[in-house]
């Protein structure tokens, strides 16, 4: 099972959380970024419906897949 780490970092004159190479929006305080990461992390773990998805990979190629709504990643926050 995948595990996602939400890391709190200084970013663009404020604070953000980062998952992999992706940054959240910038927040004015560390506390605001931490709270946003906690909310996003909790929402990431909620099961949803199984549905078809489309996404573009790093090479610009589009993919169609069936996403199992019960297959949710584990998450953690690194502060």
From TrEMBL:
<dbReference type="Pfam" id="PF09954">
    <property type="entry name" value="DUF2188"/>
</dbReference>
<feature type="compositionally biased region" description="Basic and acidic residues">
    <location>
        <begin position="58"/>
        <end position="79"/>
    </location>
</feature>
<dbReference type="InterPro" id="IPR018691">
    <property type="entry name" value="DUF2188"/>
</dbReference>
<protein>
    <submittedName>
        <fullName>DUF2188 domain-containing protein</fullName>
    </submittedName>
</protein>
<feature type="region of interest" description="Disordered">
    <location>
        <begin position="50"/>
        <end position="79"/>
    </location>
</feature>
